[in-house]
Amino acid sequence: MPINRKIMGVSRVSAPNRKGIFGFGLIQTGDRVATTNLVSNTGVVSSDTTSVASGRSYLAACGYGADKGIFGFGWTNTYSNLTNLISNIGVVSADVAGVGTARPSLMACSYGTDKGIFGFGSLGNPPYRSNATNLVSNTGVVSSDSGYVGSARENCAACSYGTDKGIVGFGSDTTGATTAITNLVSNTGVVSSDTAGVVSGRFALSACGYGTDKGIFGFAYITASSSITTKVSNTGVISGDTTGVGSASSEGAACGYGTDKGIFGYGSYYSGSTIKVSKTNLVSNTGVVSTDTTGVGTARNGLAASSYGT
């Protein structure tokens, strides 16, 4: 069953009254858009806003600077390393010339309370997958490639945990096989070596923080699109799979909002062709995922999401 094997990124654990933003993506016509949808501090998603950025898909996003965010990398009509800053009121900037290897299908998360990291992703030539990382300073400046720790892979996801650390999980490796490997990100942005997976391998998933210090992965492609979720403890330990709630999807995005909650949104599923969706699923402060909320905004996949504001 075919599926476009790309993934996007995610964001940090929420701070008090934090809001969220979904942005960019691939719509049903195949066009790449720069559309954004704000998430209120109560989890309400707004209608579409057209940003001034270049439309692209399969990018990543994370928070930085305590109250801002950044979209980065992805696919335009070629591999991209463009970035777009998100202000503390949810306004997306014009394109900023990229630093680091251009690539889609990567992950992003916050670490150290006010910094971020982009990492891994898809390359156009052998070995086809990357394990490079690019750190984001607390002023939104992206570094050149560094790190190179952990198995190179694409279509993984990441989220914050423990208030100042991050975790990268899952994806597809250099052979194209799915994996459940995880890599912890320290509070100084150092990525650990691989930890073997204890749950089913998957790709094209999303992740976000909840409960101020925990995380959750969900809505992935396993043998088909799924709504299965997997929690991350406040020490970065992955739990077993939880039977999914809400309709199966993959290639969506997720971010934190409010004081301690999260939201999964958008994505796609395969039914003879790839069907884009705009539904959302809220995550409570105990990690319980809600049933579908009818989506607001244009249905799309290959998008990214971040928290912003205070």
Structural overview:
By secondary structure, the protein is mainly β. It has strands spanning 19-27, 32-39, 49-50, 60-64, 68-75, 79-86, 107-111, 115-122, 129-136, 146-147, 153-154, 157-161, 165-173, 178-185, 206-210, 214-218, 229-232, 238-242, 253-257, 261-270, 274-283, 300-301, 304-308. Strands 1, 2, 3, 22 and 23 form a five-stranded antiparallel β-sheet that branches. It has a four-stranded antiparallel β-sheet with strand order 7-8-9-10, with no helix packed on it. A hairpin with a 4-residue loop joins β1 and β2 (32-39). The protein is globular.
Summarize the structure.
The protein is mainly beta and 310 residues long. It has a single domain (19-308), classed as Kelch-type beta propeller (Neuraminidase).
SSE inventory with pairings:
Layout: E1 19-27, E2 32-39, E3 49-50, E4 60-64, E5 68-75, E6 79-86, E7 107-111, E8 115-122, E9 129-136, E10 146-147, E11 153-154, E12 157-161, E13 165-173, E14 178-185, E15 206-210, E16 214-218, E17 229-232, E18 238-242, E19 253-257, E20 261-270, E21 274-283, E22 300-301, E23 304-308
Antiparallel strand pairs: 1-2, 1-22, 1-23, 2-3, 4-5, 5-6, 7-8, 8-9, 9-10, 11-13, 12-13, 13-14, 15-16, 16-17, 17-18, 19-20, 20-21
